Amino acid sequence: MNRTELLSTVLSLSTEFSPREKTDRPAVLAPVQGLTDLMLKLRDHSELSFDMLTVATAIDWIKEGKIELVYILISSTFKHSLQVGALLDREKPVAPSLSSVWAIAEWQEREIFDLFGVRYLNHPDLRRLLLEDDWNGHPLRKDYVDDFMLERPWR
Amino acid sequence: MEITGMTAATMSNTEVPVSSLDERIKFFQNEPQSALATQEYFVNMGPQHPSTHGVLRLVLKMDGETVREIIPVLGYVHRGMEKKAEYIGYRQQVHLTDRLDYLCALMNNWVMADAVERAMKIELNDRILTLRTIFAELQRIQSHQLWWGVFGMDLGAFTPFLYGFRDREKITAIFEDTMGARLTMNYIQPGGLMYDIHPEFPRKVKDFLKYFKPILNEYDELFTGNVIVHQRLKGIGILDGKTAISVGASGPVLRASGVSYDLRKSDPYGVYSKTQFEVPVGTTGDCWDRYIVRMQEMRESIRIVEQLIDNIPEGPTMVMKFGAKIRIPEGIYYNQMETARGILGVMLVADGTEKPYRLHFRTPNFNNLWSVISMAKGLRLADLVAILSSVDIVVPDIDR
Amino acid sequence: MGLINSQNAPMIEAFPGGPAFLTTIDTVINWARSNSLWPLTFGTSCCAIEVMMAAGAANHDLARFGAEVARASPRQADLLVLAGTIVKRMGPTLQTLYAQMAEPKYVIATGACAISGGPFIYQSYSTVRGAHELIPVDVIVPGCPPRPEAFFYGLLTLQKMIREGESIRRPGERRKPVLAALPPGITIDQIRQELILNLEEKSVTKPLNEHAKMENLTWKI
Fold first, then answer.
1. Domains in chain C: how many in total?
2. Rounded CA separation B2/A150 (Å)
3. CATH of the domain at C107
4. Residue among B14, B16, B18, B57 with most chain A CBs within 10 A, to mutate
5. Burial of B314 (0-12, 13-18, 19+ CB in 10 A)
6. Contact criterion met (CB < 8 Å) for B246 and A102
């Protein structure tokens, strides 16, 4: 399946998907509400069969006041890939957990919670993954400040 | 699912509870004890432990010698690489990738360089691609040699460690001639290679291959045929294909479970499409299969290098002006490659400046470690060590 | 050598020939200690491959210098080789490990990360800027990662330091490693002067001031 075919198949799957610009892979945007159902559709579709969640991460768009969740799905049978994005409110980022769809999402979501502060609903074990439990703040946010962090003093 | 009907009122942060490690341990403590009423207890494995290959900490719930539950605690070498990446230019990112999975530093360099090249739409000549492929395959052999040595040591045999390192040093010497570094090379740069190869490079590689092919059979005689090794590995840590896919395992771990997914075949980069090689695939997905798949991979890598080493095309080794500032047009770029441990992906979010807006490394060990948890439950503690070693964990790659 | 220790050293010194006797005992003990260092298997990242594994394996053979008995338990080890980055989360564990080691204990910090934070010194929220902020470091071996040969030089420097440094009379007091590593006839002040002259010539004094400011910063784990 080439890029346009893949995109049209995905877009015909649900009206809630909208194409995303400025990516090198086929990419769509999905609403946060009902993300789990949409992902299940993508996983179980016979022609798509995205059974691997390769990347789950987030981007902090501080100017827009949004946090974008980025999921890159890969099909181990058809070897094609798709990027799914979902925009969250930056102040109160809450998203549904995908750990029931792909098992690895449990850890990836813990990492996103750790570094971006996105809270996941129905997550089996939501706690920090890389930093201590009592760490203050979420370091990969663009406005993160830390007394410990040093700026490069020159250049 | 009830999430579909989520309203704005339920989306407040305070209503999503956050757990902690102590609570997690307590969660398993409160479980009812088994009918035999043996005393269940918790053991802390790591962070300083010789067979966790770095500073991995596993909190194990044990029933006698049997592992009941594994709680991995990560972050003991979390260096904040993704934050650091937002402050440095694209050319400097290559230096960070060296320190991710240091055992296949060149392949990591290649992923980063290729991500930048694809985003900038830079065309490379055949010489660069061929040399990169040769270096990547040599590095794969080197990485698997070290794995073989350490695997032997974890199972209680010290000789493989000495043998593995003896042969590993030979490849290290070849790399050192060209790159001047032994472990973290920073050699593959966006736009080409840092220097041209050493004039003696093809001859030395051929010498090495001639030396190493019989050595691989010696490895087999020493270790593969050993009855203790068979009993320690066969039927231990079975990972079926479906679970492997759902946890996103990759590399030899995935292929040992019977899923033939290798980016070198399915999405060829470099000059892999011009070479002949097989992708070794296991059947049951136990430690033994992972062992055999890696041993076969070394032989296939030798095959690839042999096909390429005799006819390296001529041409420049850098197609970009060295030292030029790289500005990537706005957008999200994702690039992935097959390293010795699995798929390493780089997600670049560019905003048109010299520095990335966000950089995310999708590292193979992160997903592979998750597969260990499903494998080791119900087995003995000594089997957990064999499983950890057969998956070939590199902890700085997980923690980043 | 529990019979002769710092408590009864002054007593022995009072006898005729006592000081000479103590010095001989010092020499013997230091010789033995310097040639039987037992390193702890402790590696956090890249440097562990070069410094602990490649150095201890077939080609380089750490056994030539009597330090090949790598122990997994800190209670049996007296040399801590810091191979790799130390992050804040690892800090308390590292201090515990150091406290558990048998006296007299020595620390070699290898690689840029363990010395100063290395590539992660700036803009990292978790990397400790040098292991010396947590535990006393005796010898540093620069490199990223250092070659096994460089580590051997560090190890030999430590051995020299042990042989020349400690005395029963003042236990725990050691000669500074940088002095032990200097070539004969050169003092540390000469090197310092030369460095300052060099920096002034190239007019890079601004970074120097910044570094001076940085040294005053404090943090806690």
1. 1
2. 45
3. 3.40.50.12280
4. B16
5. exposed
6. yes
Q: Identify the pLDDT of residue B77.
A: 87
In a domain, C218, yes or no: no
Find tokens 């973290």 and name the residue. Answer: B184
Q: Residue ranges of the alpha helices (H) in B99-125?
A: 105-120
**B59-93, pLDDT tens digit by residue?**
888 888 888 888 888 888 888 888 888 888 888 88
Q: Residue A66 in contact with residue A127, Cβ under 8 Å?
A: no
Contacts of B1 in chain A (CB under 8 A): 36-37, 96, 122
pLDDT tens-place string over residues B279-323: 888 888 888 888 989 888 888 899 898 888 888 888 888 887 766
CB contact under 8 A, C122 and A152: yes
Q: How much is the ipTM here?
A: 0.86
Number of A/C CB contacts below 8 angstroms equals: 33
Is residue B221 classed exposed, middle or buried when 0-12, 13-18 and 19+ CB atoms within 10 A define those classes? exposed
Query: Which one, of B210, A116, A153, lies nearest residue C206 by Cα?
Result: A153
pLDDT tens profile A85-143? 888 888 888 888 888 888 888 888 888 888 888 888 888 888 888 888 888 888 888 88
- For residue A128, the distance in angstroms to the closest alpha carbon of chain C comes to 13
Q: Which chain A residues touch C126 with a CB distance below 8 Å?
A: 131, 139
Give the domains, in start order, of chain B with CATH numbers.
Answer: 89-399 (1.10.645.10)
Q: Which domains does chain A have, with CATH numbers?
A: 3-93 (3.30.460.80)
The answer as to whether C130 is a domain residue is yes
Identity of the residue in A70, A76, A130 whose CB atom sits nearest the CB atom of B259: A76
Q: Residues C1-18: what's their mean pLDDT?
A: 69
| pTM score above 0.80 | yes
Contact predicate B58/B71, CB 8 Å: yes
Calpha distance B369→C6 (Å, rounded): 51
The Cα B218–Cα A32 span in angstroms is 57
